[in-house]
C-alpha cells in the first residue's frame, strides 16, 4: 500500500523554491502547509524504514583470532594480557560489545566499537592476578555480541542498537587457565 500525499496544484503560477517547498499564487496557505508537512512525514518514514531495514537483516559473521578459546598460562600472581583480533566478515557495518562472566578477574579494552565490512580491531583481554586452585575458573568466558548498525548512523557505538527488536548475534570464547 502506497502513501498518498496531497499534491500541490500544477498551475502555471507554481514555482519550486527549495526542495519540498512549492509557491503557488492560486494555492491556499493551508494547502501549501499540508504539502510541506506530508513531505516531512515521508522523509521521516523513509529514515524509520532504513533503520528498521538494518535491524531486519541478520548480522553477518565475525571472525576472531583465536577462533575458539583464550588460554592464560601460569603463574597467576601477575596480570596477563591476551590480544584478540575481531574482523567483520559481513557486508554491513556492525556494532560490537564484549561481556564477561567474571568482571573481577577479566578486563577488556576496548569493550565495544563499530566495524565496517572487512575491518578489524585488536582487543586486549587481561586477567588480573588471583589464587589459582582456590577460585572457581570453570565458567570463565568472554562473549562478543554484535548487531547491524542503522543505515546512515555515525561510526560511534550506541548501546541502544542492542536494546531494540534487531537481531543480536553472540560468540562465546571460553577462558582456559593452564596451570
Automatic annotation (TrEMBL):
Organism lineage string: Eukaryota, Metazoa, Ecdysozoa, Nematoda, Chromadorea
Cellular compartments annotated: Cell projection, Pseudopodium; Cytoplasm, Cytoskeleton
UniProt entry keywords in alphabetical sequence: Cell projection, Cytoplasm, Cytoskeleton
One Pfam family it belongs to: Motile_Sperm
Ranges of residues in domain MSP: 61-178
A GO-annotated cellular component: cytoskeleton
Function: Central component in molecular interactions underlying sperm crawling. Forms an extensive filament system that extends from sperm villipoda, along the leading edge of the pseudopod.
UniProt-recorded name of the protein: Major sperm protein
Gene source species: Steinernema glaseri
Protein origin, superkingdom: Eukaryota
